Amino acid sequence: MAIYVTSDAHGHVRALDEALSKISLTSDDTLYVLGDMIDRGPDPVGVIKLVRSLPNARVLKGNHEQIMLDAIIGQDPLDAETWDINGGWTTRQQLNDMEFEAYEELIRWAAALPLYAVAQTAERPYLLVHAGIQTEAARAFLLEHGVDCGNGRGAVDADAELLQQMRSRAAGRSCAWAARIPPACPIASTSTAPPPLGRSLAA
């Protein structure tokens, strides 16, 4: 059983597909996709479809997925401009071209993506996240639980259960340890997903 980690495909489905073909994933392997599947490249929805077709993929939300959700669901008019500045044009166009039911399901899926995962190897567990964590908060939590991150050791002495507790505690505090990604909890509870910018509900 192998564990693979990838991130930041940014709409380049052919490059991602080629990389995946080189590792020959089996049903016993796990692939962690650490977000930023969309924007910039020519086929962001294709990247999402490819990732979702993989049986053992564990997918995290990246800052680009959050930027997209903010632009679609958020109330701030600057969110759409932020998405454009960050390469959201192709993603928006592909979303606009989708059947509404498929679009809505994709948005709900993206909104529910977690920010963290814990990958357990034979040697130790690893905390995986797209944009990083606020290290001061993480170190304080681990020190409270008897894990000293000093002397360059990091969290190597933490077990998977403690990292899961740290992750759960962070989520309970509005994802306070996620760097550069705003809290996503309110989005996941949205009862209906509004359409992408420039698309009406009647479409």
Gist of the model:
The chain has 203 residues and is mostly helical. It has helices at residues 13-23, 44-53, 63-73, 78-85, 89-96, 100-111, 135-144, 160-172, 185-188; strands at residues 3-6, 30-33, 57-59, 116-120, 125-129.
**Average pLDDT for all residues:** 83
Structural class: mainly alpha
Instruction: Determine the number of helices (DSSP H or I, runs of at least 4 residues).
Output: 9
Spatial shape: globular
3D architecture notes:
The strands form two sheets. The chain has a three-stranded parallel beta sheet, with helices on one face. It has a two-stranded antiparallel ribbon with strand order 4-5. Helices cover 43% and strands 10% of the residues. The chain has nine helices and five strands; from the N terminus they run E-H-E-H-E-H-H-H-H-E-E-H-H-H. The chain has 203 residues and is mainly α.
